[in-house]
């Protein structure tokens, strides 16, 4: 075997000895990550994040509506005090 190169048999033996178990472990970890993200029949991270974002958007709209109503009420009260409505 020359340095930096290997024949097919050496490469296969090196794969069997060093890489095969590592690749299998990485594959298992990737499967678990994919299941966590997609959910596999249960709500996954992706769905849960979408729900949180939708809730945040609704909450933001509600806060703007409440603030707008409060400003309108305050403006009406000031108007009535100034002009005696």
In short:
The protein has 85 residues and is mainly alpha-helical. 82% of the residues lie in helices and 0% in strands.
Tell me what you see in this structure.
The protein is rod-shaped, with a radius of gyration of 32 Å. It has 85 residues and is mainly alpha-helical. It has two helices and no strands. The model has no long low-confidence stretch (mean pLDDT 90). The chain has helices at residues 8-38, 45-83. The relative contact order is 0.05. The protein has one domain. The longest helix is centred in the last third of the chain and has 39 residues, at 45-83.
Keywords for this structure?
single chain, 85 residues, mainly alpha
* Secondary structure tally: strands: 0
The succession of helices and strands, N to C, reads: HH
Low-confidence stretches: none
Oligomer type: single chain
Kindly, what is the distance between the CA atoms of the first and last residues, rounded to a whole number of angstroms? 100 Å
What sort of overall outline do the alpha carbons produce when their principal axes are compared?
rod-shaped
**From the helix content, strand content and strand pairing, which structural class follows?**
mainly alpha
Question: With helices defined by DSSP (H or I, 4 residues minimum), what is the helix count?
Answer: 2
Biggest beta sheet summary = none
Overall pLDDT score: 90
- Tally of individual domains: 1
Compute the gyration radius: what is it?
Answer: 32 Å
Strand content: under 5%
> Helix coverage percent of residues?
over 70%
């Amino acid at each position: 075997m020359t340095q930096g190169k290997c024949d097919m048999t050496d490469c296969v033996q090196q794969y069997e000895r060093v890489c095969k178990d590592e690749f299998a472990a990485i594959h298992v970890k990737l499967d678990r990550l994919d299941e966590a993200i997609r959910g596999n029949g249960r709500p996954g991270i992706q769905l849960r994040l979408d729900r949180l974002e939708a809730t945040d958007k609704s909450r933001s709209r509600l806060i703007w509506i409440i603030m707008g109503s409060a400003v309108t009420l305050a403006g009406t009260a000031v108007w009535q005090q100034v002009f005696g409505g």
